[in-house]
Amino acid sequence: MRHIDSLHIGSFRGLRDVKLDQLADVNIFVGRNNSGKTTLLESLAVLANARSPLEWSWIAQRREGRFSSFAGSFLDNIKWLFPQTPEMGPGPYNGRLELSTSGPEFEHRLVSSISEVFGLWPEETADPNSPQASGRFDRQRRGIRIKHQVTRSGSDGQEGSAGDARVYWEDEVHQLALFPDTLIPMEFLVPYSHRIEPTQQGSFSTATQLGRKDQIVALLADIDPSIRGIELLNLMGQRPEIFINHAKAGMIPLKLLGDVIRRAFIIASTIPQVEGGFLLIDEIESAIHYSALNKLFAWLTSACRQFKVQLFVTTHSLEALDAILYENPEHLDQIAGYRIEETDGRQQVRRFDGAMMKRLILDRGLDIR
């Protein structure tokens, strides 16, 4: 289901004036390392959450892991979503990003500016004699001022423009409740998402609450017909775990199953949540043996059509491209590939429609990566 036809990145991270036209139901981004493939997914994720700077920080952390000890601070995560150039030099950072989409379902535009600010710690934040306040009152605290304007129009008749400006201080961010204010239903899966138990449990719980549990079981049964059910259980007083009811093995913890099932599980529990929206998957082939790719991609593209989800994936794998094209011969008009490459310091994008990719890859044995 195609919700947007084009994506224009005026400025975002290292991308400048990049435009993707004629987006399809299934969009595949290829290119060398550090060419900007993941950044394209991040730009879509930010645009889908254009009114939620707090969510932007989680989007930025996905490169290291939302639960990783290496995840940066909120301020730095936000800062690095904005363009960085050598001529900026030292001193407080000021930046601007611009993103927009157009299409039959959504037309959105986000213009946001950011600037670093500094101020004194407020006296009421803590007892100056407490150990936690040691050294706190003799230095500045750091913050960022974010100003953004979001313009939206859609087929649902909702139109309008909203602006916001506020300062986020480094010592106060943890006190802010995160209430995602999404413009488009969206989820962003990274290569290790299937290994993060809180992500698995949260995704499954939300999908179950939405009444989608049976559909998740049905989707997984397409991968492994022996799968009969899924349960979130707390056995022997231990912390809750996800169990798979398997015809051959009985009730078995999901973490003991192979990567294909675990990867399929996180995708299957995510797709119903983003019905009518976007699913972004970085390195779609991650953790999946090439022999399982055909079955997985046939199931994935069929599920996205079922739930009217527009799919955006990155890949380094020629086998993944083969699988998508081989398993969707009657839907080639719904597939597009985009090769991202840098020429003279600027990113260039070349589009391949599904039929062209089939001729180049499957018929002629060429490599568009």
Automatic annotation (TrEMBL):
Q: AAA+ ATPase domain: from which residue to which, for each copy?
A: 23-342
What superkingdom does the record give?
Answer: Bacteria
Q: Where is the signal peptide?
A: none
InterPro entries in UniProt: AAA+_ATPase (IPR003593), ATPase_AAA_core (IPR003959), Bact_Antivir_Def_Nuclease (IPR051396), P-loop_NTPase (IPR027417)
Q: Which residues cross the membrane?
A: none
Q: Which SUPFAM superfamilies does this chain map to?
A: P-loop containing nucleoside triphosphate hydrolases
Q: What is this protein called?
A: AAA family ATPase
Name the source organism.
Skermanella cutis
